[in-house]
Amino acid sequence: MTSTTSPSAEPVGRLLGWLGLRSRDGDPTVAAEPGGIRDLARLTRRDLVDAIGTFIIDNGLEVTPANLLFAHSAFSGNNPRLARQITARTGNGGVTQTWIDELTDEVADSSAQAELERLMARLETNLDAFQAQSKSAHKEAADYGSELEQHVTDLEQLQKTGQIVSNLADLAKTMLERTRKAEDEMRKSEEEAKSLRRSLERAKRDAEIDYLTGLPNRRAFEELLEAQYREAQMAMEPLSVAFCDIDNFKLINDAHGHEAGDRVLKAIADTLSQISDDQCHVARHGGEEFVMLFRGRTPAAAAERLDQAREHLAARRLINRKTDEPFGQITFSGGVADVFGHGDARAALKAADDALYLAKQNGRNRIEIAGAA
Question: What is the CATH T-level fold of the domain 218-369, as seen in this structure?
Answer without folding.
Answer: Alpha-Beta Plaits (3.30.70)
